[in-house]
Amino acid sequence: MSTLKVDTINEKTTGNGVAIPGHVIQFLSQEITAIATTASTSLVASGFTLTITPKSTASKIKVAIGFNGIYQSAQNTAMKMHLYKNGSFLAYLDDIAGYGITGLNPIQNANPTHVYVDSPSTTSATTYAIYIATGSGTLGFNNYATGNNKTRSWFTVEEIAQ
How far apart are CA 35 and CA 51, in angstroms? Predict the structure, then answer.
């Protein structure tokens, strides 16, 4: 039995990279630091958009989103959050009815996290974006910057070697 020990692995040919199956090749992230809202009943951009250029057509792309303090101002209405790729629908993140409360105090205790794995089969730039819509009232997510609660809504895209 042989053991191979190395301190550094470098790519032999510039631009080819080193791909070990199951490992992250690239990682991109975004945080939104302001409150993002919509009163639109049609899907609109949430502000979360990341573009990644995969190094291999065999790679998987792991997309993850974490919303901080989802709120809905109208009772028993729909909430939609969809994942788009290059401007076209890719997956439902949330598409539910009956979410929200009445009055001036919006619901702020929902913090959904979603993960989606895509197989883009390309080495061209690929853009992932989150779109949101409400059935009525206002839908949004908070982002706290002061006090003890400094949580942000976040969006990540990772290229995983296969």
Answer: 22
Give pLDDT tens digits for 94-148. 765 544 444 434 444 566 788 999 999 999 999 999 998 887 777 777 666 555 5
Distance in angstroms (rounded) separating the CA atoms of residues 156 and 114 = 11
Reported pTM: 0.80
Instruction: Provide the strand spans (E) within the chain.
Output: 24-32, 36-38, 44-52, 60-66, 70-72, 77-85, 88-99, 113-118, 126-134, 139-141, 153-160
Count CA within 13 A, CB hemisphere, residue 135. 16
User: For the stretch 48-58, what's the b/e string if a residue is b when 16 or more beta carbons lie within 10 angstroms of its beta carbon?
Assistant: bebebebbbee
Question: From CA 101, how far away is CA 94, in angstroms rounded?
Answer: 17
